[in-house]
Amino acid sequence: MSTCNNLHVHHILGLCIYLVLEYIKGERHLQFVSGVSTPFYWITAYLWDMMVFLVPIGLSLLLMFAFKVPAFYGSTNMLAVFMMMMLYA
After folding, report:
1. What residue spans define the domains of the chain?
2. What DSSP string describes the chain?
3. What is the model's pTM?
């Protein structure tokens, strides 16, 4: 279980580095200059983050399914774990 948590921590740190680099490069400013509205910028940023976060969630669920971890394996448990991970995102 701790390995799964470590994977998520590394993924979150990777997203934080992206935000810092985005701020340094001024990508948001470039998009505003080109005419992108503020809500559209934040909606697309959120959708991109969700798509990127689905990769480790999918891999985690695949490993839980492959090794049949009793606490997470099952039709209702797997859905609950998926929802918990998505809400964590």
Report:
1. 2-88
2. -HHHHHHHHHHHHHHHHHHHHHHHHTHHHHHHHTT--HHHHHHHHHHHHHHHHHHHHHHHHHHHHHHT-TTT-SHHHHHHHHHHHHHH-
3. 0.58
